[in-house]
Structure to design on (412 residues):
């Protein structure tokens, strides 16, 4: 699809959301809109605030709008409409909010709708299958993984079970729920210590962006880490901490039903746990081709999102390890029935010379565009291919029969 053939299509990009990764989602959403605009698509920005309220309108395209201190007064912003999205497949427009509409008695807000929807929402409600279910009910084309893949990939313990069933190596783990922690903290700590010797890694089971991830070296640190994780999620995931390792990331996208891996990257971090600050607040992008720059953004600025993380692309690792990473990444993507684009994160333990799959990110920060650019696929062409794939998947879904007339309730 060329830019000239894209101009009659409107893509709705949803960002924000009721998630601790709200700000990261805003950055990703605007980067994607930059790329879509370059590709020639019309845009419908849809911002979901931290309370779950939906707003739509062109002014939401301005990234500076979200850098102001305090709550956003969007209800009074010209050309921005408070809206809701209906799951009724016969309704093909965003519905003006009945209590927040700025329309007078003789005026009617403009009809807002899109050809394809792209949920650039990280974490809860965006990557867990919730908004994908809404799109499925409404029967609209949308970009990215479906309900099943999203739910499986966001829940780290479920991801490990699925991957292990497919022969992909993962670290041993233990889960602790809020109910278990409230009932007997001592028993939980004892079970965690039986998993492996210290240090241990503790994570919220269904969050990303390294939020709430802690490294515990003794029982008190472990208790504090579990408490923090359970403030952010209803389940904590515990793993043994590797002490001499490096990370390798690889993205995968679906292309005409085929899983295609990207180049591999080696994130450069001074920490044993890649923190939120390392990912999003440290400037100075670096790559094998002289640096990473956001689409239309400034190299190393916070607006560059994941692109501002220092990294080496392609990863300076042996060819056989690159092949192994790409093979595991593609297999994992297929195991969860992935679609769109995902970034697969690996850990290589130098002590045991073993590779472990760590996480699957079904809506990766910056759409991992820098990994595709390293293969010769620019960001605008990446999003164009994702739009085409979403429309093809939607056509396939429409070919499924959802009606079976059995006359079970008929009485003669």
């Amino acid at each position: 699809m060329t830019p000239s053939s894209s101009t009659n299509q409107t893509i709705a990009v949803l960002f924000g959301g009721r998630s601790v990764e709200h700000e990261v989602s805003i950055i990703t959403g605007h980067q994607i809109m930059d790329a879509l605009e370059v590709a020639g698509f019309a845009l419908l920005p849809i911002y979901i605030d931290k309370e779950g309220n939906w707003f739509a309108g062109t002014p939401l395209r301005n990234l500076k709008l979200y850098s102001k201190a305090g709550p956003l007064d969007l209800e009074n912003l010209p050309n921005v409409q408070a809206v809701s999205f209906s799951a009724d497949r016969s309704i093909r427009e965003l519905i003006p909010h009945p209590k927040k509409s700025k329309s007078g008695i003789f005026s009617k807000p403009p009809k807002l709708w899109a050809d394809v929807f792209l949920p650039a929402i990280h974490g809860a409600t965006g990557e867990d299958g919730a908004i994908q279910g809404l799109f499925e009910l409404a029967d609209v084309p949308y970009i990215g993984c479906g309900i099943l893949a999203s739910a499986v990939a966001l829940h780290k313990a479920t991801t490990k079970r699925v991957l292990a069933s497919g022969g992909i190596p993962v670290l041993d783990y233990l889960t602790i729920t809020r109910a278990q922690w409230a009932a007997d903290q001592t028993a939980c700590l004892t079970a965690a210590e039986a998993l492996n010797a210290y240090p241990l890694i503790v994570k919220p089971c269904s969050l990303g962006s390294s939020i709430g991830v802690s490294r515990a070296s003794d029982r008190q640190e472990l208790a504090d880490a579990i408490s923090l994780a359970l403030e952010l999620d209803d389940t904590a995931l515990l793993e043994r901490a590797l002490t001499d390792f490096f990370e390798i990331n690889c993205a995968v996208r679906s292309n005409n039903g085929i899983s295609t891996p990207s180049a591999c990257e080696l994130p450069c971090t001074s920490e044993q746990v890649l923190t939120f600050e390392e990912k999003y607040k440290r400037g100075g992008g670096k790559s094998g081709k002289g640096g990473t720059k956001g689409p239309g953004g400034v190299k190393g600025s916070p607006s560059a999102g994941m692109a501002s993380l220092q990294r080496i692309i392609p990863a300076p690792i042996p060819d056989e390890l690159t092949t192994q990473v790409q093979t595991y990444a593609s297999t994992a993507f297929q195991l969860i029935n992935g679609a769109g684009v995902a970034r697969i994160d690996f850990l290589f333990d130098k002590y045991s010379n073993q590779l472990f799959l760590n996480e699957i990110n079904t809506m990766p920060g910056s759409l991992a565009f820098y990994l595709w650019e390293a293969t010769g696929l620019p960001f605008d062409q990446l999003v164009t291919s994702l739009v085409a794939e979403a429309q093809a998947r939607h056509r396939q879904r429409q070919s499924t029969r959802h009606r079976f007339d059995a006359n079970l309730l008929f009485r003669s």
Summary: Residues 379-398 form the longest helix (20 residues).
